[in-house]
TrEMBL record:
Protein's name in the database: site-specific DNA-methyltransferase (adenine-specific)
Family: Belongs to the N(4)/N(6)-methyltransferase family.
UniProt catalytic activity: a 2'-deoxyadenosine in DNA + S-adenosyl-L-methionine = an N(6)-methyl-2'-deoxyadenosine in DNA + S-adenosyl-L-homocysteine + H(+)
GO MF entries: DNA binding; N-methyltransferase activity; site-specific DNA-methyltransferase (adenine-specific) activity
Organism, as annotated: Aquabacterium commune
GO biological-process terms attached to the record: DNA restriction-modification system; methylation
Keywords of the record: Methyltransferase, Restriction system, S-adenosyl-L-methionine, Transferase
Length: 524
């Protein structure tokens, strides 16, 4: 049911954008969904409070209060903030916006509403994107978009509303990333990759950090993981950074609507030159940095303490990202990073030297080769690096070749399904000797074994013999095939006989064609 709603909403919204660029239109749509959600949840909370204030059996009962007394009591912001509900001024509520939808001033009205919401909610200050008055939509299209968003029913139950909103939001982010193509992917990591990182890292509590957080997908999946495994929102502290101002706002909204507390720094900023969390040491780091970026270097980074394993090349930031994350890990912390496959074997401009130093220091824990076609915006093959300063299995690296685990979900798009993700996570947990907690609250531990063609635990000395190349395919070997009792000579004889039969049949058909052409008067 919800899947049908999402598809219908997207089809209609996409049709309304006319010739507007998807990258610009995205912020208009997601901003309106945000207003609709906080307005709905505010109205639902008000109705709930009004009923409780009148209920003699409720702790909020307000005695013989008049309607005026109740109305005044409902103005107390604490009732709303304690339930993770934003205070929405009357002029900014969805009913007021919808009533103005057909007027030519609707764009300015929405911008003003966002300003009022920011003024009443310090958490949202500076993060709502007020761009509606200058939107380049044809006349009437913004009003039609308001009418469309009005059809999203978030219901009266707060947790249900948040789940509906989260799914709609995530679906729209994915569809916009697909619509934007190569320009749109720097902030969006496909859900199956995020789920794999989260499943392997298992962030149950502590500080979670993403230094290039995009729209906040890593954080959202971390919270889902915690809730699915018996924890609660708030068990982790969220820290992020994002350079793109509009994407930074998108991340803040994405987290705010889910009631997740977060610290995305004072402002959008470059992680390398304006590190917003310089003193942070995180329990878990999850990141999908932009692949192979060449314009990252600044003179101020010369001799930076983050470059513990060597100076990263100025023409490629991959090893700057890896070292930045190691620098920000607690001694007991773990990191999971998505990078281009080239990072596993490149030896240009000091990259091989840095990789060798990291391997020899025993901070590389697990390497995973991913299937192709997972990303919306690039066909560059990718891999996962898992780093840890204090590994359970010292002196070894676990290699997993997951390239064959992808399932096509469209003509151009693949994903790792839940079974594939579980297989990877269970393999890593068994290798670490950890108890793996299931979503149903159960726990299991299995003994790790190498599986030819899929996984192998490799000592550091062997990796050094291979020039510190970390490509899983080099180590896991070939997949075992079932023994075939049929002797080679017998098999060859059968194949030869079959080939002879097919050649004879071909000669018969050729003669028949020549005969038919002769009858028709053609010279053959």
């Amino acid at each position: 049911m919800l899947d049908d709603i999402k598809k219908t909403l997207w089809a209609t919204a996409d049709k309304l954008r006319a010739n507007m660029d998807a990258a610009e239109y995205k912020h208009l749509v997601l901003g309106l969904i945000f207003i609709k959600y906080i307005s709905d949840t505010f109205t639902a909370r008000t109705a709930e409070l009004a009923a409780r204030l009148r209920d003699p059996d409720d702790e909020y009962f307000y005695g013989d209060a008049t309607d005026e007394d109740i109305a005044a009591e409902l103005e107390d912001r604490d009732y709303y903030t304690s339930a993770n509900v934003f205070w929405v001024p009357e002029a900014a509520r969805w009913e007021a916006i919808r009533a103005t939808a057909k007027q030519s001033t609707i764009g300015k009205f929405i911008d003003d509403a966002l300003g009022l919401i920011e003024a009443e909610n310090p958490k949202l200050k500076g993060i709502l994107d007020k761009r509606y008055a200058r939107a380049q939509l044809p006349d009437g299209k913004l009003g039609e978009l308001v009418d469309l968003i009005s059809t999203i029913g978030f219901g009266e139950n707060a947790s249900t509303a948040r789940d509906v909103l989260g799914q709609v939001y995530e679906y729209f982010l994915g569809m916009f990333a697909s619509a934007e193509g190569k320009r749109g992917g720097q902030f969006y990591t496909p859900a199956s990759i995020v789920k794999t990182l989260v499943a392997v890292l298992a962030p149950h509590h502590g500080k979670v950090y993403d230094p290039c957080c995009g729209s906040g997908g890593m954080f959202v999946q971390s919270e889902k993981f915690i809730e699915a495994h018996g924890g609660k929102i708030g068990d982790v502290s969220i820290y992020g950074q994002e350079a793109n101002p509009t994407t930074w706002r998108l991340a803040a909204m994405n987290l705010a609507i889910r009631g997740i507390d977060f610290n995305l720094g004072r402002e959008p900023a470059d992680t390398f030159t304006r590190n917003q969390h310089a003193d942070l040491r995180a329990d878990y780091i999850l990141a999908n940095p932009p692949f192979n970026i060449s314009d990252w270097w600044h003179g101020s980074l010369e001799g930076d303490p983050r470059w513990h394993y060597g100076d990263p090349p100025q023409g490629n930031a991959n090893y700057a990202w890896l070292q930045h994350m190691l620098h920000h890990l607690k001694p007991t912390g773990r990191a999971g990073i998505v990078l281009a496959n080239g990072s596993m074997s490149s030896s240009q401009n000091n990259e091989g030297v840095i990789r060798a130093a990291m391997v020899d220091a025993d901070v590389v824990e697990v390497m995973v080769a991913l299937p192709g076609q997972l990303f919306f915006n690039t066909q560059i093959p990718a891999c996962l690096w898992f780093l840890a300063k204090q590994k359970q299995r010292k002196g070894e690296v676990l290699f997993i070749d997951a390239r064959k685990l992808g399932k096509m979900i469209s003509r151009v798009q693949a994903e790792l399904d839940d079974a594939a993700i579980a297989r990877i996570a269970e393999t890593v947990a068994a290798w670490r000797g950890e108890v793996l907690h299931g979503a149903e609250g159960g726990a299991s531990i299995t003994t790790y074994e190498d599986v030819p063609g899929f996984c192998r635990s490799v000592p550091l000395a062997e990796i050094a013999q291979h020039g510190h190349v970390l490509t899983p395919g080099r180590y896991v070997g070939a997949e075992e095939v079932e023994d075939d009792d049929e002797a080679f000579a017998e098999k060859m004889q059968k194949l030869t006989e079959k080939l002879g039969e097919q050649m004879a049949k071909g000669a018969e058909l050729d003669a028949l064609i020549r005969q038919k052409l002769g009858v028709l008067g053609y010279e053959v």
